[in-house]
Amino acid sequence: MSRDEQQDEPQSQRATAVDKYVGLRIRERRVAMGLSQQQLASVIGVTYQQQHKYEQGLNRISVGRLFTVAQALSIEPAWFFEGISEQDRPTEPAPRQRLHLELMRNFASIKDEKQQEAISNMARLLAGS
C-alpha cells in the first residue's frame, strides 16, 4: 500500500504507535509465561499469522480480542497500557528489555520447581536484597 493510499485509509483502520506498544506488551507477557506464538494464537482463537501481526503492531486488536488475550495471559487488560504516555511511546524493546525477556523465557522453560527456586534465590543474593 502506498503512502497516499494509507493516508486515505480511515484512521480507525490503521495501526498506530499505541497498537505497536500493546503488541510489544503482548509479546513480553507471552514470553514471560513461556508460551509460543502458536500456543497463544490457539488459546485466543486466531491463526499464528494473525497473532504475529498483533505482536508486531501491524494489525489493530479489537477490545474483545484484547480482553481474551488478557484472560489467556492471566492479567488485567489495563496492563497492556501501563507505562504508555503521549510523549514517550517505546516502539521496540531496549537491549536490556530483550535480556529480561530472554531470561524470563529460559526461566519459564525450567520444569523443576526446586531448580527455579534455586535460581531465584541466587538472583536475589546477587541483587543484594
Description:
- The structure is a single chain.
- Mean pLDDT is 82; it is low at 1-11.
- The chain is globular, with a radius of gyration of 17 Å.
- It has helices at 3-8, 17-32, 37-44, 48-56, 63-72, 95-108, 113-127.
- The chain has 129 residues and is an all-alpha fold.
- α3 crosses α4 (48-56).
- The protein has two domains: 8-84, lambda repressor-like DNA-binding domains (434 Repressor (Amino-terminal Domain), Orthogonal Bundle); 92-129, no CATH class.
- The protein contains seven helices and no strands.
- Residues 26-80 form the HTH cro/C1-type domain.
- InterPro entries: Cro/C1-type_HTH (IPR001387), Lambda_DNA-bd_dom_sf (IPR010982).
- This is Helix-turn-helix domain-containing protein.
- It comes from Belnapia arida.
Topology readout:
Blueprint lengths: L2 H6 L8 H16 L4 H8 L3 H9 L6 H10 L22 H14 L4 H15 L2
Helix pairs in contact: 2-4, 3-4
Organism: Belnapia arida
InterPro entries: Cro/C1-type_HTH (IPR001387), Lambda_DNA-bd_dom_sf (IPR010982)
Protein name: Helix-turn-helix domain-containing protein
CATH architecture name of the largest domain: Orthogonal Bundle
Discrete helix count: 7
| Through-space gap between termini | 52 Å
Mean pLDDT: 82
| CATH fold descriptor of the largest domain | 434 Repressor (Amino-terminal Domain)
How many structural domains? 2
Shape: globular
What is the H/E string? HHHHHHH
- Specify Rg, calculated over alpha carbons: 17 Å
Unreliable stretches:
1-11
The CATH homologous superfamily name of the largest domain equals lambda repressor-like DNA-binding domains
Tell me what portion of residues adopts beta-strand conformation: under 5%
Helical proportion, percent range: 55-70%
The top-level CATH class of the largest domain is: Mainly Alpha
User: Helices and strands: which structural class?
Assistant: mainly alpha
Number of E-state strands: 0
What summary fits the major beta sheet?
A: none
